[in-house]
Amino acid sequence: MSVLANIAWVQSLFMRENTWRDMMYYDVPEAWHTGPVLAEAAYPDVLVAKAVSDGRDLDCSATAWQRWK
Amino acid sequence: MSEAVVRNVNESYIGLQPCEPSWLYSICNTFTLNSLLLHHRLHNNPAARDSLEFVMKSYESEFLNPDGHYIVYREKRGPAMVTAPSVLTDGYLVGFGNAAMPNTVQRAWLLLRNKMVDKGLPKLKWPDKVDLGNYKRHSGFSRIAFQVAAREMGDYKIAREIEGCFMEEEQSQHEPGAPLQS
Predict the structure, then answer these.
(1) pLDDT of B31-74, one tens digit each?
(2) Of A50, B101, B146, B147, which has the fewest beta carbons less than 10 angstroms from its beta carbon?
(3) C-alpha B73: how far from its chain's center?
(4) How many CB atoms neighbour CB A44 within 10 A?
């Protein structure tokens, strides 16, 4: 399958009921506006798996990527 | 960017933007719908609202068959290209058209679910055997479109079943000697 198909496949796994409808009609949670954010990461050396704010803290996990030699 | 979308919509005879030189695809124009909808909500832009109404009306009058299935594509000044009802097109329309056109896509979902589940998985025909990423023959994209539709409609049981079948099928194709999917 193509790269686009693989992306569509992974994207579909994140979907729940009314994902697109909610994205179009509703704002993101207030905590995401006020909480700390991950400003930058040196892609591709740092691969961010998760960065979720609850308004005060940032729950973040990342890994270092080893280049193939 | 929204100004460009509005301009393209206004210049279009039917309202949808061509993404091949002169072909209007119903799947691709869900991006037109959603970008106009979002822009209007955030900026209360009358031009975006008018264009959105034009595109929505066009989907209903020009891209929806009497049987409730969506037309895959049309020539921008000509007739619709006749194809069999497409799982790929209906699935993506359900997934990405749910924000702007919930009434028609929910009907399309009921028809699609009936076709795909209640009556058993049909043998997929062209254009459901095209991978939109590389235009090669592969029915995977259609399965993914069905999965997208099931999840957007909250039909998780069906989504999990499709996911399981799909993973099994993909893995079997990577075993040595497994036949290629035609």
Answers:
(1) 999 999 999 999 999 999 999 999 999 999 999 988 888 998 88
(2) A50
(3) 10
(4) 9
Q: Hey, are the CB atoms on B95 and A20 less than 8 Å from each other?
A: yes
DSSP B114: I
pLDDT, one tens digit per residue, over B116-160 is 776 555 566 767 888 888 888 888 888 899 999 999 999 999 888
CA B144, CA A10: separation in Å to the nearest integer?
Answer: 9
* CA–CA–CA angle B117, B34, B21 (5° rounding): 90
Q: How far apart are CA A49 and CA A51, in angstroms?
A: 7
Residue B158 contacts A where some CB pair is shorter than 8 Å: no
Q: Which of B141, B142, B166 to mutate to test the interface with A (most CBs of A within 10 A)?
A: B141
Calculated CA dihedral for residues B94, B98, B104, B106, nearest 10 degrees: 70
Taking CB atoms and an 8 Å limit, are A20 and B98 in contact across chains? yes
Q: Which of B2, B89, B98 to mutate to test the interface with A (most CBs of A within 10 A)?
A: B98
Looking at the complex, report in whole angstroms how far the Cα of residue A28 sits from the nearest Cα belonging to chain B: 13
